[in-house]
Design brief:
Elements lengths: L2 H5 L22 H7 L6 H14 L2 H4 L4
Length: about 70
């Protein structure tokens, strides 16, 4: 018997697939990009993010994340 899994309370341990997601298939918003770049959600930063998304697409946010 695996003692590690036996020591865990029922319901803990493996995260169900329905709760796991990477966001890889979700549409990225200007707000997402602004926040990922450490900017506040101001009208100017939202406009910057919209321009950046228009130019770079999904790569714009991927450049911000490790």
């Amino acid at each position: 018997m695996n003692t590690e899994s036996a020591a865990r309370p029922e319901g803990e341990g493996i995260t169900p697939d329905r709760l796991l997601h990477t966001g890889a298939c979700d549409e990225i918003t200007a707000e997402d990009l602004a926040l990922a770049s450490g900017r506040d959600l101001t009208p100017e930063n939202i406009e910057w993010a919209e321009r950046r998304l228009a130019q770079r697409g999904r790569a714009a946010i991927e450049e911000q994340l490790p």
